[in-house]
Amino acid sequence: MRYVILFLLAASVFAATPVASITSSSDFELSGVGVTVAGVPSWPLMAGDTVVAGTSAARIRFVDGTLVTLGPWSTVTVQEKKDDLSLRLMNGFISFTLAPSSALSVYSGNTQVQAQPGVTTTASAGGAATNGLLPLPPGLPPLPHPPGLPPTLSQH
User: Fold this and answer.
1) Global pTM?
2) Cα 83 off chain centre by
3) Residue 31 lies in a domain
4) Is the pLDDT score of 59 beyond 50?
5) What is the tens place of the pLDDT at every residue in 93-122?
6) pLDDT at residue 58 above 50?
7) Is the pLDDT at 139 greater than 90, yes or no?
8) Could you list the residue range(s) of the whole structural domain that residue 36 is in?
9) Is residue 153 part of a domain?
C-alpha cells in the first residue's frame, strides 16, 4: 500500500512540471490568483495556466528557450494537448521569439500565428491596438485619430 501511495505522489508531481517561468515588474494574475512580485524573481507556469499581465509588460521564458513578452493588461493561456504545447493570446498584445528547436504553437484567438525560429513576431487579439501600440487598460475608451493624418484601415 505504501508503494501505491508513493507512486501516485510521484505521478502527481510529474504531471505538475513547469513548462515556463514568468517575470514582471508589476503584479499580475496567474490562473485567477493575484501575484505580488515583490521579492520573487520568477514564477513557474504549468500547462493550463492563464496569465493576465498587470500595469507593465510580463516576460515568459519556456523551457525550450522561447521568449514571449506580454503587453500590459494582456491575457494568455498555456495549453497542452497530448504532447503539443501552445500559447493562446486571448486579449492584448504579445511579441515572441521561438527558440531554434521550439515546437510551441502560438495562437491569436483561434488563429495560429506563423513564425520562424529566431525572428521576433508580434500578435494582437481582442481589443488590442494593431498599430504597434500597447492596448489600453480595460474600460478606457480608445484614443481619437490624430488630426491631419490619413485614416487607418480600421477607420474605413
Assistant:
1) 0.71
2) 19
3) yes
4) yes
5) 999 999 999 999 999 999 999 999 999 999
6) yes
7) no
8) 18-129
9) no
The C-alpha cell 495560429 sits at: 112
Question: Residue 140 has what pLDDT?
Answer: 53
Cβ–Cβ under 8 Å, residues 32 and 48:
no
3-state secondary structure the chain: CHHHHHHHHHHHHHHCCCCEEEEECCCEEECCEEECCCCCCCEEECCCCEEECCCCCEEEEECCCCEEEECCCCEEEEEEECCEEEEEEEEEEEEEECCCCCCCEEEECCEECCCCCCCCEEEEECCCCCCCCCCCCCCCCCCCCCCCCCCCHHHC
**Of 15, 81, 25, 23, whose CA–CA distance to 51 is shortest?**
23
Asked if residue 101 belongs to a domain, the reply is: yes
Q: Which three cell numbers stand for residue 78?
A: 498555456
